[in-house]
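Illustration 12: Type II secretion system protein.
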Amino acid sequence: MESWLYISIGLVFFAVSFGALVIYTFLFGQRLQMAQRIEQVVGSPAPVPVRELELSVPLYQRAIRPALAGIARLLARIMPAAREVELQKKTVAAGSPGNLNAREWMVIKYLGALGVGFLIWSWAGLTSKSLPQAVFLSGVGILVGWLGPDLYLQARIKQRKTQVEKALPDALDLLTVSVEAGLGFDGALMKVAEKTRGVLADEFAIMLQECHMGKPRREALRDMADRVAVDDLSGFCGSIILADTLGISMGNVLRTQARQMRQKRRQRSEEMAMKAPIKMLFPMVLFIFPAIFVILLGPAVLQIMKAFAN
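Figure caption equivalent — predicted structure in token form:
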């Protein structure tokens, strides 16, 4: 029993330390990277020792990321190629959070399953659960730890798609105005990437960077459509590729696409408004109506009970 207590204390200390590290990286990581970039461009007044430079790197990049990469190289021997390709597509569609690849996410899945299962097994031992209960709860913990990264990636993918669908009509309006004002298509895309923020602006910037590195515009557009996996953006990229191939006026194509995207956004909003009453029905039936019935019928029920009691 005492060994279980020591193990639990150690696990709690590790979980608290890791949580504090994640919160610190989330709050101050971007600021530290910006300060480091400014020092690289402007120059520091005095040479910094190598030891301080190594310690200035966040712990995630200094220790955690190399450990994940090392385990991922060992896992590559047993990981099916089809599974890796599928997970890599999902990771790219999610925006590559943490700059992790498919193998590293698979390592996180294994570590999450083992970690959560072991924590629940330890908790079951401390609370004197029976062996079948401990095994069942540990199995549930392993399943949760295994599916947790997939659920996180799915949530990221859905969030990115929603942001792209909302930002695409406005971006196309700005793109149309820029092209009609005399800018080329690449210049108009650069203007949209500079004047807007979000997932779509980042994808436009990546596409332009690929074009500057020598990739043909058609391939860059197709790759962008495959990365984001949004039907509206795929249709836009297909129209631009077709217009570029057939020599159609880019302004007319962009104007038509902008009109269609605005109409789709309006239809999507109307669809959500039509679904709202149906979604409101369930909480009303489960929570609001019972309270109303208690308030309205409660006194009558009490009077009836008193009448029959007499």
